[in-house]
Amino acid sequence: MTILVYDVDEGRIRKAKLKDYVEIVKALMQLIPEGRVSTYGSIAKALKINPKLVGKIVKMNDEPVIYPCHRIVKSDGSFGGYSGLGGTIFKKRLLEFEGVKVSKNGKILSEHISDIMDLLC
DNA sequence: CATCGAACCAACC
DNA sequence: GGTTGGTTCGATG
Asked: From the CA of A57, how many Å to the C1' of B11?
């Protein structure tokens, strides 16, 4: 099952492209409150796409502050990448600043991680 | 727990 | 057609 979108310019239904997913992911990211994170996998599941694509998508995010791509992490609690200024280190510090606690082995405590679908409710 | 490899799907070459 | 991602999941030491 693939996601379809209505393309206003072309005036027809077509399969979603990466640019469309970017818009969706932007909206989803804004649902994640401070001190809480979601995972590439849960977003991938929601959009029916490959988790690796989610990485690519959040990377295309043009407004890193407005759309908090740093609140998306790997499902095992490790941080995943960050292409913005400061890289993964900055991502880590940013999350800790927002109140996310990290265990000694460098993993985010599971209490902070929620499925993106749960945040929709 | 840590590491390994196969598998996911759209873009790009 | 093949490679490439800010990855995942299950299997194995």
From this structure: 11
Alpha carbons A81 and A118: distance in angstroms, whole number: 24
Quick check: A43 pLDDT over 70? Answer: yes
Give the catalytic positions of A in this structure: 69
Contact by Cβ (8 Å): A38, A113: yes
Nucleotide with the nearest C1' to A55 CA: C6
**pLDDT (tens digit per residue) in A89-100:** 999 999 999 999
Confidence at residue A1, expressed as pLDDT on a 0 to 100 scale: 63
Bases of chain B below 7 A from a protein C-beta are 1-2, 7-11
Report the pLDDT value the prediction gives residue A62, as an integer from 0 to 100.
78
Residues A88/A79, Cβ–Cβ less than 8 Å: yes
- End-to-end alpha-carbon separation of chain A, Å? 23
The single-letter code of the amino acid at A56 is K
